[in-house]
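Handout, section B. The chain below has 108 residues.
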Amino acid sequence: MVEKEKSKEMNEKVLNLLHIARKAGVVQLGFGACQRLCFQGKAKLILVAKDLSDKQKKNLKKMADAYNVKFFEFGSKQFLGNSFNLRDVGIICIEDKNLTNGIVKQLL
């Protein structure tokens, strides 16, 4: 029971940081936007939904490794979509170093 509460609290903290990042304009959603940020050297963190296809996860992981970007799996497409008031969100890319550090701290 305690583990479930910790997980819920961690999810809420990560979502709060994602909302702050979105308001600050340092969040991009989707593969194309994430790829562009990596090519430009602006991407700091790639979050992918756990239920994203293995092929896309593999491609994103390779890109993250190639451009020295942190990579984590978090939530489901529906969970992330609901938190952003969108249908489904599978890929989130963050440009801000400080918000990235805060999110990574919660995920570890």
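Note. The beta strands are 27-29, 45-48, 70-73, 91-94. Compare this with the example in section A.
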